[in-house]
Amino acid sequence: MHGILSRLGRVRAIRRFTVRNVLPETLAPLDRLAQNLRWSWHTPTRELFASLDPQLWTRVHGDPVALLGSLSPKRLEQLGADRSLVAEVQRLDEDLRTYLTEPRWYQQELTDPDKPDAIAYFSAEYGITAALPQYSGGLGILAGDHLKSASDLGVPIIGVGLLYGAGYFKQSLTRDGWQHETYPLLDPDNLPLHLLRERDGSNAPARITLPLPGGRSLHAQIWVAQVGRVPLLMLDSNIAENDDSARRVTDRLYGGSADHRLRQELLLGMGGVKAVRAYSRITGAPAPQVYHCNEGHAGFLSVERIRELVQGEGLSFEAALEAVKAGTVFTTHTPVPAGISRYGTDLVSEYFGGSAAIEGVPLEKVLALGAEDFEGGNPAVYNMAIMGLRTARRANGVAKLHGKVSRGMFHQLWPGFDVSEVPITSITNGVHGPTWVDPEFAALVESRLSPEQRASGEGFLLAPEEGGLSDDELWRTRRTLRAKLVTEARRRVRKSWLDRGASPAELGWTDDVLDPDVLTIGFARRVPTYKRLTLMLSDPERLTRLLTDPERPIQIVVAGKSHPDDEQGVGLIQKLVQFADGIGVRERIVFLPNYDIAMAQHLMPGCDVWLNNPLRPLEASGTSGMKCALNGALNLSILDGWWDEWYDGRNGWAIPTADGVQDQAERDRLEASALYELLEDTVVPRFYDRDADGVPRHWMEMVRHTLATLGPKVQATRMVREYVTTLYTPVARSSRALAGAADHEGARQLAEWKARVRAGWPAVRVDHVETDGVADVVNVGDQIRVTAYVDLGDLRPEDVQVQAVGGRVEDDDSLTELQVYPLEHVASYEGGRHAFAGARVLDATGPFGYTVRVVPDSPLLAAPSELGLAASAGH
Ligand SMILES: *Cc1c(COP(=O)(O)O)cnc(C)c1O
């Protein structure tokens, strides 16, 4: 015995097996139901799994794969003989099959012939279900909701990401409230994933390979998570072919050195494209016409696609860039510099230069894509957001205000243009309703309102006699959701204290934490400084009075993880935890460790008020408040992100901001004080203002208004439709146009044209401008005629557009509310000089001014701003 053990001890690679349960034949479809993540938003499927063994279901945290793996063979045999269960399994299997194959919105209603055959969506993180922890926060959850909604709409997306061996960290607390991180390893064999395998008879796992510096290689295998109709390809470098350091590339999310993160991003972007190719080759799935780069992490996808075209189709780098760009959408998600991936150019050079150089893709051209080569930029930095913008045909921010902030932030890339003309649009984020609406609330609503009444939101405004829900009913359900949260919070607080080293005997008080009838405020999010976790503690006495008011108390549930390297964030958590530990308030304010999807699904429906107090305008969108709104909770937030756009005075409250105040501490103090005031004077009185039946009528009016008006807007299906119609379809069109009938003719032409225009541009100028019909004062309705004499050097009139740019003159002589009028070419003179003219009728009063400029123009461009070049009168 001893001999065998010591021999085993010397075996270096232990061969590991996962012993899977074999399902009785009658229950075989359960495997399919568990493997398709649609169960995560399909309540009947989850109920089916729960019914197999309700206690076990709780123990495995609602994870069907784990449940099936843990049922005893005897129990399985019993279940397999249960006729009604078998019938339900078959019914749901059939339902899934229908969901996966029937024509949906994309097939039935979207008639645009240019819609893409396939879209590849790249993201560094995905939050789909708590059972697949591959996300750190909002970016990942948004990506997960994007895929789910795309599936519901039938949009042919392929997701691309990494499979992190330990996901993001698990958070617990030390006795004194310091964040403690652990990284439990995931076992892919026990996750709802399958390996992409060759179908050549070998059945070998498909492999992709990237070159590394020093002649080394990085190999990865590809796991597929099936998200309804959408496959999500997840690259995994933890395989035997790799050396130790290459194996660790996908070890965890956002961990490690810059070098480590750069390798992850190379694998995600370049490896991701290779994975898409492998997937198409093996399954016959169509090649994408559109590549959506969700935040900058995946930006290297463009380099790989350029490489394909240069090496495979003989395009020049420049023509390949045009072809790639024509099919790319880039979404920026943060105005916070720390949120943008940036690398030293030295480091990037190691991966694209020297022995790692890619034939036909010279280092300096790769570097140019991410260079901060503009005023205020850092020449030693490679910026993935800048790269994303330079390699995309269309770009967007994630809320109206964020679009505006992004246009300001990236204005340097389009120096000849006004900020308002920077080609970054916005699509406001949304959330996946079936994931985020509490099943009990959904059941009530679905039992009473038709799909149309729910979709339009109007059903929530119907009186009971019109078939709608009564205030009482809605209020009772809101209380049920609050009570579920209270139960969950008690369980979590108790567990947290046990983890913190308390003995059960000390923890009797945790049974009394929170109260199902007290106004409940939620605050949960990642903890970067700008989100101001501790703003509510600005005046601890005032907060304590609110929490402990004998008649009308409030209670607060707080959660959030801090990035482990962010000492300041970890410190904020400790400050909050130490306050919440205080005898006297600890029953009214709790910090729940390890914020994740499972917690969010209890927290957001159970709150009455969702608090958000970021430093405006640093919150790009925010989505947690949307999840609350779908459940009838009211938002109390700084006017930032989506709330700036959709707050309407009746769906919640806006915390006034002290935008102009430079002193940070003073600004925090002012905004905190405004928050307390709102709570004391408005929110609390309204919640406790009850009629004879105990219902807060005014409150319920706001709840109904929120459900009716925000409900339809905050849906991710609305968001995905917007992506499809305003970004994916136009990009598919330009991608096809530049690909041409063959040979990428359009891309070659565009690259040559751009080179010619760039070379000729220094000679372009506006010589002089003549105006008829302008006196100091003109009347509305008068016409003015502008003639511009321009020098185009070697360029032709059709290479440019000459524009009169009119607008309101501000005190500093700048123009706002710009309107652009193209002028017609009317005459050519010798030496490259031309006249352009046009007339317009003045239709607005007030100080009006205009200027004339020349911009490049070609039908192949996304917009005349694309090159960032403009020559203006007087310059
Ligand atoms: C929704 C959600 C987020 C993102 O919320 P924000 O409002 O964008 O901060 C983060 N984490 C989890 C677990 C979520 O459910």
Task: List the keywords.
875 residues, alpha/beta, Rossmann fold, 4 domains, 6-stranded parallel beta sheet, 30 strands, 40% helix, binds pyridoxal-5'-phosphate, transferase, allosteric enzyme, glycosyltransferase
Short description:
It is built from 30 helices and 30 strands. The structure holds pyridoxal-5'-phosphate.
CATH architecture of the largest domain: 3-Layer(aba) Sandwich
Note the gap between the termini: 89 Å
Bound molecules: pyridoxal-5'-phosphate
Counting DSSP E segments of at least 2 residues, the number of strands comes to 30
Overall mean pLDDT score?
A: 94
CATH topology of the largest domain: Rossmann fold
> Looking at the structure, what is the overall shape?
globular
CATH class of the largest domain: Alpha Beta
The H-level CATH homologous superfamily of the largest domain, spelled out, is Glycogen Phosphorylase B
Task: Give the total of domains.
Answer: 4
The share of residues in helices is: 25-40%
Q: Total helix count?
A: 30
pLDDT under 50 segments (min length 5)? 1-12
Oligomer: single chain
Radius of gyration: 30 Å
As a percent range, the share of strand residues is: 15-25%
Structural class: alpha/beta
Major β-sheet profile = 10 strands, mixed
Keywords: Allosteric enzyme, Carbohydrate metabolism, Glycosyltransferase, Pyridoxal phosphate, Transferase
Family: Belongs to the glycogen phosphorylase family.
InterPro entries: Agluc_phsphrylas, Glyco_trans_35, Glycogen/Maltodextrin_Phosph, Glycogen_phosphorylase_DUF3417, Pyridoxal_P_attach_site
Cofactor: pyridoxal 5'-phosphate
